[in-house]
Amino acid sequence: MSAPEFHVAGLGNAIVDVLAHADDTFLIAHGIEKGGMTLIDEDRAQTLYDALGQTVQVSGGSAANTIAGIASLGGKAAFIGKVRNDQLGTAFTHDIRSLGVVFETAPADRGPATARCLIVVSPDAQRSMSTYLGAAQDLTAADVDEEIISRSAITYLEGYLWDPPAAKEAFLKAAAIAHDANRMVALTLSDSFCVDRYRDEFLKLVRGDVDILFANEAEIMSLYQTETFDEALQAVRGDTKVAALTRSEAGSVVVVDGKVHVVDAETPTALVDTTGAGDQFAAGFLYGWATGRGPVECGRLGSICASEVISHMGPRPEVNLGQLVASKGL
What range(s) does the Carbohydrate kinase PfkB domain occupy (predicted)? Predict the structure, then answer.
């Protein structure tokens, strides 16, 4: 087997994030669930956008954010996701390619507009997301580039995209290509609401197609329907080769072949916006794994990357993560 050309290839929603600061009264007035992610239609997206006032726009999407982090670490990365040939689609394409990421998915020339996520950041740094998925949900198996997947050490799948039947087919095709090439497949559960909707399907994926699982405390407890994190931890130990479970300020727990490793959190310079914390943890962890690091070091890399992103607005790093982790001796 030849050495992989890419450390990680990501499949996920191609979204432009629109971020704004607002307090809880704004959330209540507009019926936004604090700390959650709600799917909305195009009309609702426009109404909320008009109400937000001053915003910051940045290309986002969970897996795309992770891929951006891997590029910042110095890794070679590719992304597969669908945009429309509109203004936001052009912006997304320019942004991700400017990071050195290979992005070759053909844009749609008709149908829904490019996806956008309206993120309201509260004074306590909680983010409440209202997402119009638009063209992102039109990813199909035909968009999966076999050459890119087979040349990537790890293929990373975003749970948020596990909804449309065509996207599911794309996931399963990518996983099959990766395993046929003797590569690894990683999955992030993305959100508890995703788990609640597709618990049985996610469990089937975890037990049959996934080598590395990412989840936070709420997601893993939802997956196994347990009352405590420890119960969920015991359940996942026998279901997948690697599980990287994040617990916010309590750090992370990494399970490899049933063995449990506890990794401390990295203290941020400031707590400004938790958007993208899980995405950047995954970036550090996946880069570490793809470059042959041990489980504790992978968890530490993830913690450092997560700490950087929560210290400022937006879901992507503002510093060179490769230099940052090097300054920490990694």
Answer: 51-316
Q: Does 301 map to a domain? A: yes
> Could you tell me the pLDDT band of residue 144, with boundaries at 50, 70 and 90?
very high
Q: In the structure encoding, which two tokens stand for residue 127, read together? A: 């983010």
CATH at 75: 3.40.1190.20
For residue 248, give both structure tokens: 């916010």
The number of distinct structural domains making up the chain is 1
Integer Cα distance of 234 and 245 in angstroms? 12
Task: State phi, psi for 26 to the nearest 5 degrees.
Answer: -65, -45
Closest CA to 236 of 176, 253, 163: 253
| Residues spanned by the domain of 322 | 6-13+62-112+136-328
Residue 40: CA count within 13 A, CB half-sphere = 25
